[in-house]
Amino acid sequence: MDKELLYLPHKIRKDIHLLNLRMDEFEMLSNTIPTGSFDEPRVDKSRSQEAPFVKWIYKKMEVEEEIKRLEDKLNNLLEQLIQAINQIDNSDYQNILILRYLNEVKMEDIASRLFLSVRTTYRYKYLAVKEFEKLTCSVML
User: Fold this and answer.
1) CA 39 → CA 9, 35, 43, distances in Å?
2) Residue 71 CA to chain centroid, in angstroms?
3) CA 82, 88, 91, 94 torsion: positive or negative?
4) Is residue 42 part of a domain?
5) Are 121 and 93 in contact (CB under 8 A)?
6) Which of 29, 5, 18 lies closest to 66, judged by CA?
7) pLDDT digit of tens for each residue in the chain (141 aa)?
8) What are the DSSP calls for 23-86, one per residue?
9) Is residue 44 part of a domain?
């Protein structure tokens, strides 16, 4: 566990967002009925017995399951990160790590919330990440 662990929630949220977009596309495709092309000769002589939109419904269901799996993974990861961050003694460090990496708040907004200068906030973030790395490295050993 190290600094890269702090970036995982953002990556998982991004994956969930992309899967939601894909699911919306499958939803749209499942509500359409394709028409045949009468300009080209028909190659396949056997006709499928399923409705043409069924495959999109199945794909949408698969994506929904993947989203649910990723959301569970994200929730477990957030719980573990909060437990690790709560082991840091300095409350400013804790707040900065939670706001920046778990809530994805911009550094300028964090500075205004904590009544710190932006430069001090960046310095505290650097020190907080170092403290987080020390704690997580000692846990792994």
Assistant:
1) 50, 12, 12
2) 8
3) negative
4) no
5) no
6) 18
7) 477 889 999 999 999 999 999 999 988 888 876 666 666 666 666 666 677 778 888 999 999 999 999 999 999 999 999 999 999 999 999 999 999 999 999 999 999 999 999 999 999 999 999 999 998 876 544
8) HHHHHHHHT------SSS-----SPPSS-TTHHHHHHHHHHHHHHHHHHHHHHHHHHHHHHHHT
9) no
The total number of structural domains in the chain stands at 1
Which of helix, strand or coil describes residue 110? helix
Q: Which domain holds residue 27?
A: 3-33+50-140
Distance CA 135, CA 32 (A): 54
Question: Does residue 66 lie in a domain region?
Answer: yes
Task: For residue 45, tell me if it sits in a domain.
Answer: no
